[in-house]
Amino acid sequence: MRISTVAVLGTGLVLALAGCSDSGGDGNTAAPAAPTSSSGSSEAPSAPVAPASLELAAASSSLGEIVVDGKGMTVYVYTNDTQGAGTSTCTDQCAAAWPAVPAASATPAVQGVTGEVGTITGVDGKPQLTLNGWPLYTYAQDQAPGDVTGEDVGEVWYVVSPAGEPIKESGDES
């Protein structure tokens, strides 16, 4: 009886973790059907996933403490934007590769983020989150929580610290 209890508890844990990392973007947090294989091929994300009720959170990464969205995906700033201008300059193909971090409300729920969180009207007409006046984005090439593949792309895209500062790991601080 002990083995079946452990199997049931393990399945429940897998379902609970899967519900926290919904990647459908529709807000549906229902857990997927239980896996039919016990191969153990599922892996935990490499960085903490922000609880679904949060819009921004601090998380540990290979670049240190960074900001992630409500799905645990790394958040970036675009230095071609003007900090504090209240607008995004990332449009068309840029916006497809670098989706805006949406704001669900005018008072976003955050955890561990110490910079000033706000909102602007994004290029799609919807509310977009900002941190210290920087419009926030995710990177379409990041596949899982903890990915930071957008860092230093084009020397204009950077991961952002919980204080709201771009983290420039390229060594070019010019």
Q: Could you please describe the fold and organization of this structure?
A:
- By secondary structure, the chain is of the alpha+beta class.
- It has two domains: 1-44, no CATH class; 56-167, no CATH class.
- Helices cover 14% and strands 20% of the residues.
- The protein has helices at 2-20, 92-97; strands at 56-61, 64-69, 76-78, 110-111, 117-121, 127-131, 134-135, 157-160, 166-167.
- The strands form three sheets. The protein has a three-stranded mixed sheet with strand order 2-1-4, with no helix packed on it. Strands 3-8-9 form a three-stranded antiparallel sheet, with no helix packed on it.
- A hairpin with a 5-residue loop joins strand 5 (117-121) and strand 6.
- The longest helix is centred in the N-terminal third of the chain and has 19 residues, at 2-20.
- The radius of gyration is 18 Å and the shape is globular.
Task: Please compute the radius of gyration using only Cα atoms.
Answer: 18 Å
Return the domain count. 2
Largest sheet: 3 strands, mixed
Mean pLDDT: 76
Helical segment count: 2
Beginning-to-end CA distance, first to last residue? 64 Å
Percent helix among the residues? 10-25%
Structural class: alpha+beta
Order of helix and strand elements from N to C terminus: HEEEHEEEEEE
Tell me the strand percentage band.
15-25%
Query: Which ranges are low-confidence, i.e. pLDDT below 50, for 5 or more consecutive residues?
Result: 1-47
What is the overall shape? globular
Strand order of the largest sheet: 2-1-4
